[in-house]
Amino acid sequence: MDPETSQETQPETPQETPQETPQESKRCILTTCFELEERMDQLDEERRSQIFASALSKAPNMLRTSPPLSHERANLLHIQARLLFFAEDSGPQKSLEIMKEAVSCGIAAGGGEGKFKRVAQLKREEHLREIMLSLGLVDLEKERLEEEAKQKKRDDRAAHHKRSRERKRTRENASLRKLGSAINKLHDKYFTPEICGAPGGPGRITWDDIPHVLQPSSTSEGGLTTNLEERVKRKQWQLESLAFALKRILLRVPPPPLPPPASSSRRIKVVDFGSGSGNSALVLAYLNPSIDFTLIDTKPECISIIKSRCESANIANVTAKLISCNDFKEEFDVGLGVHLCGEGTDEAVVKCFDKQASFLIVPCCLGKISKVVVKGLDNLDLSDQYSAVDYPRSQWLKGELELESYLRYTRLGDYSDGNGEGGSNVDAVLAKKLIDVDRGKVAEEKGYSLSIGKYHPLEASVKNDVICGISPNHNA
Ligand SMILES: C[S@@+](CC[C@H](N)C(=O)[O-])C[C@H]1O[C@@H](n2cnc3c(N)ncnc32)[C@H](O)[C@@H]1O
């Protein structure tokens, strides 16, 4: 037989339990109330009465004023018992007052005619507190002191965490500074100020000769909509710097196999990784008609803009492809990565290593590396989607730093001080240099020769570090 049914056929005998402590009584009432709540709807009036009788028998005296035991009274009892339970330290007399107050202000039962609000639908603690306040049961001074003590504990804990974070940072920055002389030595070794030429010097671009549709001013992509004149000027400086640096690289790339016709032999191929809508590479392609440019990006709209710009300018040496750096498999000679955020720059360089291609990169958004790597570590199954590159990049730095510190330095070094030369935070400047020289060092370890320079003039962009790697194949 179903135990429920069996129980129902054996009415419980009301029993006094005078020996129970108030706490035990409260617990007992509460348990009964939960049972009531579960069963109430399935029971007939008679059975409910029996259960209430039992509940009342277990309740302390103050609850024994509740008949008649209608369904509604049951709810009231239930609610009262719960309130009682929450009135832990108040003592029987006060608890009774609380309940009466609860009923009188309509939160335990209200609306007359058996319309009850169930406690579960009310904000119990809030209402109970209101009631206790109105009955003067709350020792506000005691509460204030307790709150003050709690707040002090919270403040102390926060100050402790802050101090230990600062100590950790100081320790980490000390390890960064320890590497300082090695970083500066490498940076000095790679630093090649003339990499981007000089403003107004030879190799700068005569803009009037470039078709308008290929010029940065022809598109609003890249935020070239406000301060247009100044932004266009800066983009022109960037492109002049890149054109100059690219020319230096192309001079090293062996010419296509002879004899002509060149059409039957492979032409030199430059790939622009993360080309956007071609604001950098299209001008470079126009300036180097004998070289093939492949522009790749993961945004379809960028690819259509590139195609339409090429059509309008009638240039034939550009191919645009919707593909990510990681998925790009073709052969090529030189890779560009201009303002390709975070790990994108490294993915492009890895492709250059694969194909022994030279590269020209202008990194940005170093801090993004950390986000991508951490996401990858949090989702090991999907880590390939987050980063195809391991950090630190070079064997040299792998031997000096843990990944965690390296990632912190990517965030620390992700500053823009406007001229790229100082910044008030010397550690941040050092961290930025560290990431640059690590990128240089990994290439050097693979036989590349490295130069790090800056856009000319520096105001061309806050992201003005230009890193150039000449492949061992082009080093002759
Ligand atoms: C800030 S824009 C730079 C555009 C362009 N290089 C220039 O100099 O104007 C970065 C571009 O890189 C693309 N990109 C980012 N990660 C990429 C990846 N892993 N593979 C291909 N494209 C990527 C983005 O869609 C975006 O269009």
Give a brief description.
The chain is α/β, with parallel strands linked by helices.
Description:
The chain is of the alpha/beta class and 476 residues long. The chain has three domains: 3-138, no CATH class; 140-178; 186-474, Vaccinia Virus protein VP39 (Rossmann fold, 3-Layer(aba) Sandwich), CATH 3.40.50. Helix content is 50%, strand content 9%. It contains 17 helices and seven strands. The protein has a seven-stranded mixed sheet with strand order 3-2-1-4-5-7-6, with helices on both faces. Helix 11 (300-313) links the parallel strand 2 and strand 3. The longest helix has 39 residues, at 140-178. The structure holds S-adenosylmethionine. S-adenosylmethionine (SAM) binds at residues 222, 273-276, 279-280, 296-299, 302, 324-325, 338-341, 344, 347. S-adenosylmethionine (SAM) binds next to strand 2, strand 4 and helix 12.
Distance between the termini: 95 Å
CATH superfamily of the largest domain: Vaccinia Virus protein VP39
- The CATH topology name of the largest domain reads Rossmann fold
DSSP summary: helix tally = 17
Integer average pLDDT: 76
Order of helices and strands: HHHHHHHHHEHEHEEHEHHHHHEE
What structural class should be given to the helix and strand makeup?
Answer: alpha/beta
Strand content: 5-15%
Poorly predicted ranges? 1-18, 59-71, 105-124, 417-423
What's the total count of β strands?
7
Round the Cα radius of gyration to an integer and report it: 38 Å
Q: What small-molecule ligands were found?
A: S-adenosylmethionine
Q: Considering DSSP H and I runs of 4 or more, what fraction of the residues is helical? A: 40-55%
